[in-house]
Design goal:
By secondary structure, the chain is mainly alpha-helical. It has 8 helices and no strands.
C-alpha cells in the first residue's frame, strides 16, 4: 500500500507539471472529456456565414426597395415611366411600354405605402436571421429553417403564376439554403447525442 500511494503521488505530481507546462493540452483533454469535438467545424461555420451574408444582402435589397416605394408615394408613376422610356433606346409606342404604362396605372399611393412597409418589415426579419446565423445562434438556425420552408409554397406559386428566370434562381437558392440548414441541424443533433452518450459513459 505505501508503494501504491507513493506511485500515485508521483503520477499526480507529473500530471500537474504537464498541465502547467502545456495548458492547451489540458484544455483539449477537458473538451474531450466533456464530449466536445477537438477539430473546428470549418466547413459548416463557413456555410452559416454564407447563409447569414445572403440574408443580410436581402435585407439591404428590401430596405432599398422599401425606401424607393415610399419615395414614389407622392410622385406620378406614369410620368416617371415615360421619362425612363425616353432615356432608353426603346420604341415608346411598342408593346413593352404599353404594358409598363398599364401596370403603372394600377399602382396608387396605398399600394406604394404597403409595399414600402412590407419591404422594411421583411428587411428586419432578414437582419435578425443573418445576424443570428453569423453569431451561430441555435435559435437563428431553427428560425431561418422554419421561415425558409414556410416561404417555399408561395415562391412555387409565384413561379408558376409569373414565370421568370429570376424566380427560378431565387427558388433554387432558397432550396439550397433549406437543404443545408436541415443537414446542419441533423448533424448537430447527432453530435450532441454522441457527446451526451460519451459523457454519461465516462461519468459512470
Amino acid at each position: 500500500m505505501p508503494l501504491t500511494k507513493g506511485w500515485q503521488a508521483r503520477q499526480l505530481k507529473a500530471d500537474m507539471q504537464e498541465i502547467l507546462s502545456n495548458p492547451n493540452s489540458a484544455s483539449a483533454d477537458g473538451r474531450q472529456a466533456t464530449g466536445q469535438a477537438l477539430h473546428p467545424h470549418g466547413k459548416r461555420e463557413r456555410g452559416l456565414l454564407l447563409v447569414g451574408l445572403f440574408k443580410l444582402s436581402k435585407a439591404i435589397f428590401f430596405t432599398a426597395l422599401g425606401a424607393g416605394a415610399l419615395h414614389l408615394v407622392h410622385r406620378n408613376i406614369g410620368d416617371l415611366v415615360m421619362r425612363i422610356v425616353d432615356a432608353l433606346p426603346v420604341d415608346p409606342e411598342g408593346r413593352l411600354v404599353s404594358l409598363l404604362m398599364d401596370k403603372a396605372d394600377l399602382i396608387d399611393t396605398r399600394h406604394l405605402r404597403q409595399a414600402g412597409v412590407l419591404s422594411f418589415l421583411y428587411a428586419v426579419v432578414c437582419v435578425v436571421e443573418g445576424t443570428g446565423l453569423m453569431l451561430e445562434k441555435t435559435w437563428a438556425e431553427y428560425f431561418t429553417t422554419l421561415l425558409t420552408a414556410a416561404a417555399l409554397p408561395w415562391e412555387i406559386y409565384e413561379l408558376f403564376a409569373h414565370f421568370s428566370g429570376f424566380r427560378v434562381g431565387l427558388l433554387l437558392v432558397n432550396l439550397g439554403v433549406l437543404g443545408y440548414l436541415l443537414w446542419f441541424l441533423k448533424r448537430k443533433r447527432l453530435e450532441e447525442e454522441e457527446a451526451a452518450s460519451a459523457h454519461s459513459s465516462s461519468s459512470s
